[in-house]
Design goal:
single chain, alpha/beta, 4-stranded mixed beta sheet, 6 strands
Length: 170
């Protein structure tokens, strides 16, 4: 038995599942999320209870919101939680490197561990792991795929989501 609940939001990025617990949002997952989440932990569907989170996601994807105002309750190790909290300090429309992220948590030599923690971020978009790029500025892996990451970065740079480009790589 789980105390979580979920809703599914149709977006230009495809269906996105938002998972909430008693203390806040625990997950935001793409249909082809990598690594795949344990859907057994999603709980019952609760569109009404998660409507505020769904509305904020839609506003963000429409270019009408630059920050989320949601209680978050990610589940992870203490190290992962530190990394995910540091991700929230990356301003809208900007990117940072894995090296910056490691240094920001006081562990500048832990770049690989930070990269792994970043890849396990369960609250995509809201906890903006898409804003992390390689040392050269190149796009690196993303749970929703690189086309999705590029679309989110372009959106934050002021462009509308290019659904045709997303469909072309899907």
């Amino acid at each position: 038995m789980t105390d979580t609940r979920h809703t599914i939001v149709d977006t230009a990025l495809g269906p996105v599942t938002i998972v909430g617990g008693a203390a806040g949002i625990q997950g935001l997952f793409y249909a082809d999320h990598r690594p795949a989440p344990d859907v057994a932990r999603f709980g019952d569907r609760d569109d009404a209870g998660l409507a505020p989170a769904a509305a904020q996601l839609r506003e963000y994807l429409a270019g009408e919101r630059t920050a989320f105002d949601l209680a978050l309750d990610p589940v992870g190790t203490p190290f992962q939680l530190r990394v995910w909290e540091a991700l929230r300090a990356i301003p809208f429309g900007e990117t940072r490197t894995y090296g910056w992220l490691a240094a920001s948590i006081g562990q500048p030599t832990a770049v690989r561990a930070v990269g792994l923690a970043n890849s396990r971020n369960p609250i995509s978009i809201v906890v903006p792991c898409h804003r992390v790029v390689g040392a050269s500025g190149a796009l690196t892996g993303y749970a929703g795929g690189l086309a999705c990451k590029r679309a989110l970065l372009d959106l934050e740079a002021g462009a509308l989501l290019d659904v045709a480009a997303l469909d072309a790589v899907a």
